[in-house]
Write a structure and sequence with these properties.
single chain, 6 strands, about 130 residues, globular, four-stranded mixed beta sheet, 2 helices, alpha+beta
């Protein structure tokens, strides 16, 4: 399997994300459902965007590990942030946990999430060699 990041000269370049990614077979696709700032014992961790983003990304990494995938296998992420949340706190927490691993990214402000205590939710798609 080969994962290739594409950032053509005709589009803006940003080290935080890739404009497109191709996956050449053979690969197994892994879909990670929305991860929130919930600890293994079911408690919401943190009451600000930074702390919740950090926990949600840690949960995402744990979910990837559980299915034999790694961070570098992630080819697509979607981040949902409750409207009014501090985007800069989220970016800082992301750099702390996720680092500079560029992937394709969709970011959305939303009116709310499944639990009123949730401030952020992150889902991902990974491609794993078979």
């Amino acid at each position: 399997m080969k994962i290739t990041h594409h950032n053509p000269d005709t589009l803006h370049k940003n080290p935080a994300f890739s404009q497109a990614i191709t996956v050449d077979p053979p690969a197994r696709l892994v879909f990670i459902g929305g991860q929130n700032a919930v600890s293994a014992d079911g408690q919401v961790v943190g009451d600000d965007v930074g702390a919740q983003t950090e926990q949600a990304l840690k949960n995402l990494l744990l979910a990837l590990d559980a299915v034999g995938a790694k961070q570098e296998n992630v080819v697509k992420m979607a981040i949902y942030l409750v409207q009014g949340g501090d985007l800069q706190q989220g970016f800082a927490a992301s750099q702390k946990v996720w680092g500079r691993h560029a992937t394709t990214l969709t970011f959305m402000f939303v009116a709310g999430l499944a639990n009123p205590k949730y401030l952020v939710e992150i889902e991902a798609i990974a491609a794993v060699p078979v």
